[in-house]
Amino acid sequence: TIRAVVRGVGHYLPERVVPNSEFEKTLDTSDEWIRSRSGIERRHFAAEGEATSDLATHAARAALRDAGLEPQDIDAIVVATSTPDFTFPSVATMVQGNLGMTSGFAFDVQAVCAGFVFALSNANAMIQTGQARRVLVIGAETFSRIMDWTDRGTCVLFGDGAGALVLEAQEGTGTNADRGILSMDLNSDGRHRDILYVDGGPSSNQSTGVLRMQGKEVFRHAIEKLAQTAHTSLARAGLSPEDVTWIVPHQANLRIIKGTAQKMGLDMDRVVVTVQDHGNTSAASIPLALSVGKERGQIHEGDVIVTEAIGGGLAWGSVVLRW
Ligand code: ACO
């Protein structure tokens, strides 16, 4: 059988780090409130003129370096983002241009915070059906561009960043026999549009809009749905929670991350947590956490990893892979 195996990983964070204390200057909030409610201590914000495609290109180059590959070795680029530079073209084709690739194909996937899980599923399907042998899967966001800076309930929670994986088709033989993407589960429920959305767009009011969220409502759905999807994809892989080396969750909120691990019956020492340093980077958070988790020496070849995410739509899902 052909499996989509992780051959490289990388990430990029904009230079500017913004600690919680900076919000105390302009909002009725505190470092203590933000930390205790979300686990977030700081986040990165892109510089003026630094766009999502720039972040994505940096992360792509880092993943290619890690894989020991050149841009021309890649057949396809999938970028998960809800904050593209332009309405069109896709961020993915801009990355393709930046990398100097003149063949292959590229497109974006939009499932907000669950975008990377949906992109992985897509890339896996293209590899399994022989449409591509090597796929760059990128999550890249500049949520700082869609914040309402007067809304303390949202603007303290998000950050900018990008992460990328190189997936490669490998025959399941020898030591690689059980590596790669093993299973997945995708879901959405459009009835919940109003609890998390951006109030602008080309076909509504021709503005960029800002993020609107009923935090408590999102929270209420999150733990239940994340634990459920993780169980479903693990069962599809013939695995149970005890087989999991690492949960690499979407990094939205430490309380959601802890609640989900607890519901799965797993201790926090099996969870890769980066939310304290990155805030919620939406579709970028999982590949960022995978890259940082590897850099920290947490993630090793052969580890069983469950990634799970939920976001606007609602859209949610999970992927099980052996690193
Ligand atoms: N500083 C100080 N006070 C604040 C702040 C702030 N930054 N933000 C809100 N408050 C106030 C509220 O106004 C409210 O005051 P009130 O009681 O006088 O009205 C009070 O704090 C409590 O607000 P709650 O909403 O009850 O606080 P809660 O404990 O639910 O925490 C939070 C809010 C952090 C948004 C939480 O609901 C949450 O994490 N929800 C999930 C949202 C999320 O993670 N979304 C990310 C996108 S989707 C995803 O990726 C999962």
Automatic annotation (TrEMBL):
It is found in: Cytoplasm. CDD domains: KAS_III (cd00830). Residues 251-255 are annotated as: ACP-binding. Residues 234-323 form the Beta-ketoacyl-[acyl-carrier-protein] synthase III C-terminal domain. Gene3D superfamilies: 3.40.47.10. Pathway: Lipid metabolism; fatty acid biosynthesis. It catalyses: malonyl-[ACP] + acetyl-CoA + H(+) = 3-oxobutanoyl-[ACP] + CO2 + CoA. One of its GO terms (molecular function) is beta-ketoacyl-acyl-carrier-protein synthase III activity. Its main location: cytoplasm. Residues 107-190 form the Beta-ketoacyl-[acyl-carrier-protein] synthase III N-terminal domain. Keywords: Acyltransferase, Cytoplasm, Fatty acid biosynthesis, Fatty acid metabolism, Lipid biosynthesis, Lipid metabolism, Multifunctional enzyme, Transferase. Its EC number is 2.3.1.180. The active site is at 113, 250, 280. The keyword GTP-binding does not apply. It comes from the Bacteria. InterPro entries: ACP_syn_III_C, ACP_syn_III_N, FabH, Thiolase-like. The keyword Cytoplasm applies. The last Arg residue of the ACP-binding site is essential for the weak association between ACP/AcpP and FabH. PANTHER family: 3-OXOACYL-[ACYL-CARRIER-PROTEIN] SYNTHASE 3, BETA-KETOACYL-[ACYL-CARRIER-PROTEIN] SYNTHASE III. Catalyzes the condensation reaction of fatty acid synthesis by the addition to an acyl acceptor of two carbons from malonyl-ACP. Catalyzes the first condensation reaction which initiates fatty acid synthesis and may therefore play a role in governing the total rate of fatty acid production. Possesses both acetoacetyl-ACP synthase and acetyl transacylase activities. Its substrate specificity determines the biosynthesis of branched-chain and/or straight-chain of fatty acids. Belongs to the thiolase-like superfamily. FabH family. Homodimer. This is Beta-ketoacyl-[acyl-carrier-protein] synthase III. The gene is fabH.
